[in-house]
Amino acid sequence: MSSTKFGTLATALNVSQVRRTFLAVSALVLMTPLLSDAQSPPMTYAAITDRTVRQYPPLPSLGSAGFQFTDPAFGSKMLRVTDQNTRPDRPGRAFFSPASAETNAWSTDSTKFFVTGEGGEMIPFSFNPTTMVASRMGNTSNGTGGLLLGVDGEPGFSYVDPDLIYGQSGSQIVSYRFSTGVQTALHDVHNCLPGIQTHGVGVSGTKDDQRLLIFVGSTAQNLDTTVYVYDRTLGCRWLNTQTGQVGGQWGPTGAYTGDSGFTLHNARLSKNGKWAKLTDGSGSPAGVYFWNVETLALIPCNVNAFPFCPGHMVTGFNLVIDHRGLTDGLNFGIRPMLTPNSVTQLINPELSPTQFLVDTHPSWNNVQSDEKQPFCTEVYRTDDLVQRAWDGEIICVETDAPAATVWRFAHHRSRVVSFGDQPKANVSQDGRFVLFTSSWGQTLGLQPVADGGGPRDDAFVVQLTPAPTTAPTAPTSLSVR
Q1: Does the global pTM surpass 0.85?
Q2: If DSSP codes are grouped into helix, strand and coil, which group holds residue 319?
Q3: Is 9 helix (H, G, I), strand (E, B) or coil?
Q4: Which residue from 307, 285, 167, 216 is spatially nearest to 320, judged by alpha carbons?
Q5: Domains defined along the chain, listed by start
Q6: What gap in Å lies between CA 112 and CA 107, rounded to an integer?
Q7: CB 55 within 8 A of CB 479
Q8: Radius of gyration of the chain (CA)
Q9: What is the pLDDT of residues 134-180, one digit of tens each?
Q10: What's the pLDDT tens digit per position in 326-354?
């Protein structure tokens, strides 16, 4: 591995890794977390759960970046992260949450997140989860307003180390440590596939940071041919959707079982590293596939016929969540990647009247190995109307019930005209915040012509308040029977 300074940009603040530690309490072996421990993701929230239609109230007036306010309809605490001056060298530029809601945009302890700029730059922020104060990292007087991450495409934070983020640089998979400002090359794709074309794509990884996935084979999205998995111990493993072949340094190799001859729109790794979700970019027979990474099996999930796998998806460990769009635009389902025909509908009963004029981007960075944590998303309509519950809202959805509770936190107030306006909610690893994009009713001014013109967007954070819990009281004495 090689290490280099991350350009000439200033290094970030040093945030020590927070790990969960427990103390044994008497013969009951009660386990009590230390005050400095990272928090477990909540299973429930102190938020509205009814299905009352809540129209948009008057649009709250915003202050500049750093302005905090309360959502007038749902009462959640909110933060404006960026404004037209976030990059002083690019005044008026728009800023967004990551383009993919599957991206892990938050550090393990919610003290860092990143946003993207209209120019494709990745901008990390320091964040205080208690005060909800966010600030640019690095040398804020360096002309660009602070640190810019020198990676291609969207990076992804470590699920283990709050000081570490993973990305792609050319043909290399790299890590970047904020406290030292050092970028380290972990692996070069060309070591296994000499000369293969690469470009900036999203990096996804496992909950133990053991495996990382990118997709390669071209210079543009929808043309890539190869899912590429790097295991820190075993090395490389790849699947080529054009040739139908699997190769690499570990696991069985040769012809895989399943469709071939198509290209990739997207690929993501499950949190246990056993599954890769492949989204077709060129009209394959099924449209969505799940590769059992340790085998030669490519399992189809048809987007147009049973079991109906359309819409944006997000992987857990062995389960995947999507909005099926089968009988309603918010017909969320959860299914095993091994047997994707077996799907459990989460919204029961469905909203009335049923409609299809909505879209969502599920985010599940808070998922744990039991896969019972809520996922979070936004609901948006291109007509910007509110006709049913959840229209225009940031919500989280229970996953551990066939009739899921839906918690409602805020109106995102984004008028979706282009892809950039889509809110793309991104939940923190501790399940206590959502980062999202908004045009704020197209009241944020206009972008420079050099950036494409049109209404600006900014990044916002909404707090997801956990439901109160009552800790058990330890007995003063024990009786022995």
Answers
A1: yes
A2: strand
A3: coil
A4: 307
A5: 2-6+59-463 (2.130.10.10)
A6: 5
A7: no
A8: 22
A9: 999 999 999 999 999 999 999 999 999 999 999 999 999 999 999 99
A10: 888 898 999 999 999 899 999 999 998 99
